[in-house]
Amino acid sequence: MLPSAVVRELDPDAVPEGRRPRRTARDWAVDTCCFLMVVLLYLVTAVSLVQHPDVPEGLVVADGVLGGLSCLAVWVRRRWPVGLAVAMIPVGLVSSTAGWAELAALFTVAVHRPFRYVAWTAGATLAFAPLYYWLRPETGLPYVASLVFALLLTVCVVGWGMFVRSKRLLMMSLRDRAHRAETEARLRAEQAQRLAREDIAREMHDVLAHRLTLLSVHAGALEFRPDAPREEIARAAGVIRESSHEALQDLREIIGVLRTGGSDDAAGGRPQPTLAALEPLVAECREAGMKITLDHRVADPGAVPASVGRTAYRIAQEALTNARKHAPGAEVTLRLTGTCGDGLAITVTNPPPESEAPPVPGSGQGLIGLTERATLAGGRLQHGTTPDGGFEIRAWLPWG
């Protein structure tokens, strides 16, 4: 299992061997700036050490060599932050030019390690400070003032590093939360689509059962009454052909959405609404207090296929429900137009809510289900706000 981004960024040693991430361009820039700053302070300290009259030349050379090697060691501070900081404590005790590299290592520990590592390394550094200033007293600076300066410098470096660490942790936590929120939203949307598909499959199950039963009855009549009149045989054959065609059409719609795991709800045999049930739906909503303008311009409502009418009914029902929840008191316009061959168009529009009552909160999953229904029926559905602040749902279903 790969470690999280926070662990990879702030605790490099937690990444197993072979999976260590490479330095980014930002890492190289930061390391280069840190190295150059340490080298600059090293040169300043080395010059002052050379000009010191009481320091032997051999000690100056040894101090400079140790300081130079310490500056080069800054490049491995990300890989071994604690080890480098511990190694720099005795080196900084005998080399004044290595003190700046020691502070850089301490800063790296504060950025990349928990507080317990920082406390131990900073405490050890401060514990050797009195011995260092006793062996190498600063010219023109009292002993106590030197210790206070070392304490303040160490506290500033550690505090700065811990501030950087806390800021990175916060940013990565927010990024991780945003990623989890996006993942959860996607999972909720997928679940809503799955539930909508299952609901469509249940409805189609009832329709297929009805059509196949009708087909079986007429086929059985032809089998047991081969001497029936020619007109009756022709009528039964026409019913069989039409029922078979409709059953195949319904089967094509559900072939990719059957996802139920043996639920018993599909066996209810309840009647399914069609386009003819739209006007009773509008009347029921009006009785509940909604203001609805119905503009029904379908050329031949009786010729609309049952599957198309059922989908149109569900779209209108969900749109009216959304309008009642989110725009209470507003007048809703329901418009249906279409002819055989051109398709069936459904438009539901509502202005901004007129009532001061707060709208009922919704999750938006109903619109996902409507889009799924329209797509499975071979049509399309769009929704969005209008220029005046209202809301509109536009759907088109094939009819031909």
UniProtKB/TrEMBL annotation:
The chain crosses the membrane at residues 28-50, 84-110, 117-135, 141-163. Residues 25-159 form the DUF7134 domain. Gene3D superfamilies: 1.20.5.1930, Histidine kinase-like ATPase, C-terminal domain. It catalyses: ATP + protein L-histidine = ADP + protein N-phospho-L-histidine. It comes from the Bacteria. One of its GO terms (molecular function) is phosphorelay sensor kinase activity. The keyword Amino-acid biosynthesis does not apply. GO terms for cellular component: membrane. Keywords: ATP-binding, Kinase, Membrane, Nucleotide-binding, Phosphoprotein, Transferase, Transmembrane, Transmembrane helix, Two-component regulatory system. Residues 197-261 form the Signal transduction histidine kinase subgroup 3 dimerisation and phosphoacceptor domain. Its EC number is 2.7.13.3. Residues 311-398 form the Histidine kinase/HSP90-like ATPase domain. It holds the Pfam family DUF7134. This is histidine kinase.
